[in-house]
Design brief:
The protein is mainly alpha-helical. It has helices spanning 16-27, 35-45, 52-64, 104-120, 123-133, 152-159, 164-184, 211-220, 229-233, 237-256; strands at residues 92-93, 135-136.
Length: 257
């Protein structure tokens, strides 16, 4: 029977419903012992949308198949998630894939809120993070959707209406993209303590360097690769990271000269 039953075995294959539910389970897990959650996650992997009909089928499957059979499929839970696409929120502009279109200012605001949410697990920080990630849609095509701290309450009026599980999922995707960026720019993220292999990604505790500090450093740098503080903040995230590495390289060469 098992060969007719396939379940997703990586983050990218999950449906929106599965992502939301599994992220929810993970976000509320503090223990290293995963037995109870394991059972819940298997149940979710057997349903695409969580409908009543799917629940009945899922119970039938679990009557006939030992839960241990699903162990191989669940390996992805403790691996680094590769979720890089953000979901739509009506009336707002979502970040591009891997946040390719957000400025370093927007990223540092999000990063600070993400850190607060990770350390204190308060929904208020999660809600603020979601509001900081999405931008108001400037209806007219000619205007770019801009990030503006003063508009955050307006964005929050929309984002605060989404279900908390959807908010957790968006926070999780931000964390996933952040891991991707930290991999691409390890020297900038060196304060992130590496986790031990057997430790699930989401339990790793991190030291934290606020990005706003790095932006200020970059603006104060005599090389002025990105201009003054205001211009610096408006630089796109990846352009900023590349310029930061470039400036470090130049300084190293200067110091050798």
């Amino acid at each position: 029977k098992m060969n007719q039953i396939s379940v997703p075995d990586c983050w990218e294959e999950l449906t929106d419903y599965q992502q939301r539910e599994i992220v929810h389970i993970i976000s509320h897990t503090d223990t290293e012992d995963f037995t109870e959650q394991y059972m819940q996650i298997v149940q979710i992997l057997l349903m695409k949308k969580g409908s009543i009909w799917e629940r009945i089928k899922m119970r039938k499957v679990l009557k006939n198949i030992p839960i241990s059979n699903f162990a191989p499929a669940l390996k992805f839970i403790s691996e680094e998630p590769k979720l890089h696409h953000f979901p739509e929120i009506k009336g707002l502009v979502k970040p591009a894939v891997r946040m390719g279109d957000i400025t370093i200012e927007q990223f540092s605001v999000c990063d600070t809120l993400f850190y607060r949410y990770q350390t204190e697990k308060k929904e208020v920080y999660l809600r603020q993070l979601v509001a900081a990630l999405y931008r108001l849609d400037p209806k007219t095509e000619s205007r770019e959707p801009k990030f503006d701290k003063n508009l955050l309450p307006k964005v929050a009026e929309i984002t605060d209406k989404i279900d908390v599980k959807e908010a957790e999922r968006i926070g999780f995707i931000f964390g996933s993209v952040r891991m991707y960026i930290a991999k691409v720019y390890p020297s900038i993220f060196k304060s992130d303590t590496p986790r031990s292999e057997d430790q699930p990604v989401f339990i790793a505790k991190k030291k934290f360097t606020p990005f706003s500090q790095i932006v200020v450093m970059m603006a104060a740098d005599e090389l002025r690769l990105l201009g003054n503080l205001h211009e610096c903040q408006k630089t796109l995230l990846y352009d900023f990271m590349n310029a930061f590495l470039e400036s470090n390289k130049i300084h190293k060469l200067k110091n050798k000269a």
